# Entry
Amino acid sequence: MATTLADDLKPLHHPKTWIGKYVWSQDHKVIAIQYSLTAIGVGLVALVLSILMRLQLGFPGAFPAIQPENYLQYVSMHGMIMVVYLLTALLLGGFGNYLIPLMVGARDMVFPYVNMLSYWVYLLSVMVLLAGFFVPGGPTGAGWTLYPPQAISAGTPGHQWGIVTMLSSLIIFIIAFTMGGLNYVTTVLQARSRGMTLMRMPLSVWGIFTASIMGLLAFPALFVAAIMMLLDHLAGSSFFMPAMMSMGQGTDNVGGSPILFQHLFWFFGHPEVYIVALPAFGIVSDLISVHARKNIFGYRMMVWAIVIIGGLSFLVWAHHMYVSGMNPYFGFFFATSTLVIAIPTAIKVYNWLLTLWRGDIHLRVPMLFAIGFIFTFIHGGLTGLFLGNVSVDVPLSDTLFVVGHFHMVMGVSPILVIFGAIYHWYPKITGRMWNETLGKFHFWITFLGVYAIYLPMHYLGILGVPRRYYALGETAFIPDSVHDANQAITIAAIVVFFAQGLFFFNMIWSYFRGAKADPNPWGAASLEWQTPDTPPKHGNWGPKLPTVYRWAYDYSVPGSARDFIPQNEPPS
Amino acid sequence: MNLFDRLREKSWQTPGVEGYSDPASYRPESAVVGMYVYIAVATALITLIMAAYLVRMGLPGTMEHGSGDDWLPMPEPPLLWINTAILVASSLAWEIARRAARRHVKGRALYMSIAGAVLGLAFMSGQLLLWRQFQAEGYYLAANPAAAFFYLLTAVHGLHLAGGVIASTRAFSQLGIEGEHARAFRNIRLCAVYWHFLLLVWVLLAGLLVST
# Structure
């Protein structure tokens, strides 16, 4: 029985075998790495799919292997993998698992066995998802939003089996997430060590904690929607399927409401944006504070902003549905609530900038990624203000403007934070340092590259270039320059794609050959850097749990000998 | 300190641990907190299905795009009420077990919780009978949306109850082990709370099914 609470008395059960340590492990750090590697692995599949899409868009017809139905399948699988199986799993399953117990001073998650199950069920969901590539008809091509009736109607790629594997995989994923989320929330509430009050927790923990609560309340909507669509598809019910003609014949369905699916989907889908964004907000706050050697500006405001954004994000879902034909008064309500979110979000952005202001900024690789995030997030956020307004959204809907917007705000921005976070915590996780030069090359190519990819998309969107189109063909309103821009975007995407090799090479090479890392190379004050061993051993803290005397941001305190005071250092 | 005061703490001004006792001394057990968090998740799940039910029914003015023309209300056979009575009895048994567990009365806690679990199984069997009865009368899943929602809601509820029965067997087995009694009593109390939650959900569901 593992020690799960703040008592030091019960013995920790240390696994004896290699399999117990690294495969069926109940150690949160091993589970975190299992989660992360699986998520990154499946994310690479989605990255390859995006390059295939770009090849088709940049050089239409040059690759005969990419047929229209393949293109739609790439779009759908890319979107779902990136949002759910990469970002959600990596930020909560990966970073949540690694950081929560270490940052709050616990030995492990409170339910280690459930935590282990969570990973294995997640792995199963990934396998079912990828099985979609091998079923007859291939994976679903319904778009990541999977809207009925087209998702399960003849004519859509993968409407027979691909959609079944997709929906089944989502159901399994949500079961896995619920087991993980219960652990993250309960651990933050229950297992904080002595002195770790709520307002002494690092913002990373606040972000992950709030996002976990949101996930627990939002994923059930997708769960329900997935089950109902499966029943429509396999059992002939009519939850979402209206009476319609398909391939010249009437279907058996009557009266279902496709819009009902959209409501359920986006009741999950919009909080999902913040389930991804809030952990990134929290982590980037910590990176900025540590590498600027300054306490985070407006800590309490930052915490409240996270909580308020989390709450508001449940009231905005229908801004994804302005063109669904809903009542205009709903549009008015949802536009208002959407724009209100800009207030706590702007507070966060200002506070990051004010933390940097007159800080002792060390432009190390994690900090570069953190600052890069501020740029991409502001850009993505501003275009969100456009799309949040009904009258501006209607003409821009389903154009590349939307693609540019959401990739900047919830694709690129969290990914930059994830890179920064991996560089930041890698020395603690592996005990080795990575190569600084390679890291900087990786940052600059990625950062400039994503601008080369997504800025032109806004311009194309304003011209009216539609998204999800296999080929534009001869269309009067699309000038030739669009094709040039598409080629340039594709070339930039290929460069960024290959630049990620620098990251993977750096991480793998450094794991074996990197210089031995100092236990606290950045001089960080939060608890995870104060472990007796690097990398931390099973149980994290040796014989005695740490006592916390202060918040996580005592940097450059006047009169202090060092420019940081660890959280577990008593006041003099 | 209440939650509001905790969230107002200016932690940068107040270093030290004076006044902070060992967390293990005052926090509820993790299992208790974990279960309440799960009840919140299950509540979200059930609420969303019920919301979908109302939208699909096409309540006038809800979303103005529900199409309830094909909605055929389900009949209310006596079995529905018999099952409800069984679930109430099951919950009552768990309540007696919970009170016995609180006072650490081993015998009564064990018998009454087993009775509660068995009555839970009886309820599930009754629900299956109800399904067969409805199917025999032509209310199968694809027949109309009211039937489809009925099967979906009862299945979700039944699966939660099945999970409760499985979890309760753990409490019974712990009662047989010396040194595990405190844990067993706690688990019996948690099971009782979970059962009451599922009874409440069932009453709401049955009310929804009957009133529409």
Remarks:
- The beta strands of chain A are 245-246, 249-250.
